[in-house]
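Morning!

As promised:
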Amino acid sequence: MRFLPLIAVLPVFLAACGAPPWNSPYPVADEGGNIAYSSFSERPKHLDPAQSYSSNEITFTGQIYEPPLQYHYLKRPYTLIPLGAAELPKPLFLDAQGQPLPADSAPENIAFSVYEIHIKPGVRYQPHPAFARDEQGRYLYHDLKPEDLAKVYQLADFPQTGTRELEAADYVNQIKRLAHPKLNSPIFGMMAEYIVGLKEYSKVLNDAQKTMPPGAWLDLTRYPLAGVEVVDRHTYRVKLKGKYPQFLYWLAMPFFAPVPPEADRFYGQAGMAEKNLTLDWYPIGTGPYMLTVNDPNRRMVLERNPNFHGETYPTEGEPNDAAAGLLNDAGKPLPFIDKAVYSLEKESIPYWNKFLQGYYDASGISSDSFDQAVRVATQGEANVTDTMKEKGIRLQTTVTATNYYYGFNMLDPVVGGLSEQAKKLRQAVSIAIDYEEFISIFANGRGIPAQGPIPPGIFGAHEGEQGINPNIYDWVAGKPKRKSLEYAKKLLAEAGYPGGRDEKTGKPLMLYLDITATGPDDKARLDWIRKQFQAVDLQLVVRNTDYNRFQDKIRKGNAQIFHWGWNADYPDPENFLFLLYGPNARVKGEGENSANYDNPEFNRLFERMKNMDNGPERQKIIDDMLLVARQDAPWIWGFHPKQYSLFHAWYRNVKPNLMANNGLKYVRIDADLRAKKQREWNEPMLWPLGLLAVGLVAGLVPAVAAYRRKERQAAR
Amino acid sequence: MINYIIRRILYAIPILIGVNLLTFALFFVVNTPDNMARIHLGVKHVTPEAIAKWKHERGYDKPLMWNGAAQGAKQVSDTIFFEKSVGMFAFDFGRSDEGRDIAHDIKTRMWPSLAIALPVFMVGLAINITFAMLMAFFRATYIDFSGVVLCVAMMSISGLFYIIGGQYLVSKLLHLTPISGFDAGSNALKFIILPVVIGVIGGIGSGARWYRTIFLEETGRDYVRTARAKGLSELSVLFSHVLKNAMIPILTGAVVVIPLLFMGSLISESFFGIPGLGSYTIDAINAQDFAIVRAMVFLGSVLYIIGLILTDISYTLVDPRIRLE
């Protein structure tokens, strides 16, 4: 008992010594380090830039690989700037005979576009064993035997590393890798439509692979690709079919980042894949960070690339950026953070609590924590609650370039087709689904109802009255107002379903919703949607199904109404409107047009619009397309989610950028402030343990007494 | 005994084939190879060619169980079932559909699972037996009654509540241990304490009550009355005589789970961020990775069979009257 006072003062003593809090999940050595702490909930499947596509993968690949272009961190609308490239490439247009055409040529006259890309000289790769050489200049680890790999379990087990200068040939190598038969690049099919010779190149590689022994390395440098060539050490050229201005956006994705042939040679050796030593696991890049720990079952660590070529923080942005302190670091060398630690956090509750304890720098907000974190003012403006404010936590919101919508299967005999009746039926249903209410109930107000397929902030979308969907909304008192249910019922009557009954048969109209609802929250959501249909006297049958069956139904066109979503690849209207382009129909063309919408007028306009540069002419065509699509209503346009993010006071230079995936290099951490706050918020409390011990002892006393009494009792 | 064990191992072979067959049938009733390919290739821009290529590379373009186009033995061997199953009987789990080495994954992930499960099992067993003894000793008194009420109450509370409540109390309010996470070596200790404590507390209700029933049954027997009549103390009666005789039912429940401790716990590991095997199978089912699912189900079956054999062997150790023939 005499030690109890000592135990009580122990936490204070440790805190005074600067020891990290007891509940800190990080090693003592990292205390006060210039380290960013974040998490991931699902292990990234691919880190090979030819395969990686999901957002949870790009979180890592975006910091490691450097494609030719990137998005400006601060400017809006989203602006492309050079990254690996020395300047933004300008396409050279050629006719069918290969003769140059003026830059303003009509798209239909352009047979080829040639992009000549000059890369920055002097850029070097991160240290990596694939580049390690001996004194004679021979690669140390390119001819490994099984016994050499006996004690190798991770990349760090190779004692030597090396580097070399980035070359244009590395970019070319990566474009070739998109057609590699073993990589299954998700963009191969699409790029094969544009890059000259890529489709044929895939066949060449397939044939070459068949003649090789299993597991042998396919040396892409031996197989030239017609549409992509190295001009000189720092220049390469990509030849595309026709005009495809969106190619520049693709050049800002890791798909087009350089991969040195040494990587394929190194990882392609027998026995490497069996030890999980692949480019998919250990990337090689030129970016500001390199992956040093890849244990996706626990944590992944990015560390500063010592060979990083250097880049500076942007010196200009939007008008409010300077006032927000986002230009305080203008012109300073990047990156600011030495290390980023991503821990596996599958459950939202521990994640949220650790954020509040200061062990994560930033957090999203789950529905469970929304009321604790955010207070919405009567004017609808969201801000953090007083508790969050006391901790110095800041809130940032931004509308995402994402659509969540209900689609009508346009091949369905009841809700599909382009007849006037079918259009009116779809419009009536679109009015009935009150998305304002949905967002309020199920998304805590985090979203805005969609007026069409293009989210706000993307070229083609209008603000204000001009931007509303006149078939669903009226402009009243300076804001959109959903049309009344009476108007929806009137449309239904005109569609041949007065009072929700088929006027020919007199039977109630039964509609079917196909959905994959698995979570506990889904029941309330489904009840809500049924209620919306009932409000216009329609009956909705929900056909809940597993993911596989749902996909099958969509693919075969067996669904009637379904829930779907789309997350933009790049900030261009083409990336949204192609979801409604007829030849992309899911049933006919295995494309992304899940509603199988096929309006010849829309298709014609899309073909004109897709390759145009942004400008009034393109805007006019988009307006016409929106008019057609809104009238046809192949989707209940749904909503665009609003992203709410919370940041601690020590996490700086944060500006939501939905397109840029390499934002880590701009972020700055005040590590001292974080360490101070962590100690302040997490001081161990020991007295309840003492109380528990006393309680247990007190409980034992009568038990011991009873035992003694029992032992002394005479036998009866 | 050796003959007995060999016979049990031989019996295990048809059981394992049956388990394999059942896993295969259940998996492919729900998922087709096309579905698997789509899940692995992602949701955007997946072409039929890419699906066909994915299936071919992993051997999922073959018939499921019977290859009518092949001749002779190949009608059976040139199928998905045969190719994916036969290697496992040599404990060659192969590679996951994503290309990862399954054996390496299991080897890496079983240690964190064991780090939690083993202390929970050992400490839990000791505490449950002690608590049950205490209740048996004070049977029909207020201590016994309160203990049973406490046990029933603890049994009635969901395991998830213990986890969330424990994290809230110990980590969030008292700031004593990290809420979740894991580290290697001795650094793992601070991450293990809370899940172990919660695991032990969560198991006390059902465990102690079950052992109390066993002990009460034993304390009514003649040998206990004789021991008491000889003047032995109650503690001596309980620990030297009752506990020894109650070992058979205790071992029946305890030994069989020892090999399965490797497999970890899904919920606990998920909430505490333990990189164990607990979520490996569930993640694989969600990702439609048949290679991992079949390997884990096979491994689970093998471990369960080992557990049953160990239980039988342990009977002979605690009760000399038992012979395995």
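Chain B has a mean pLDDT of 89.

Hope this helps with the figure draft.
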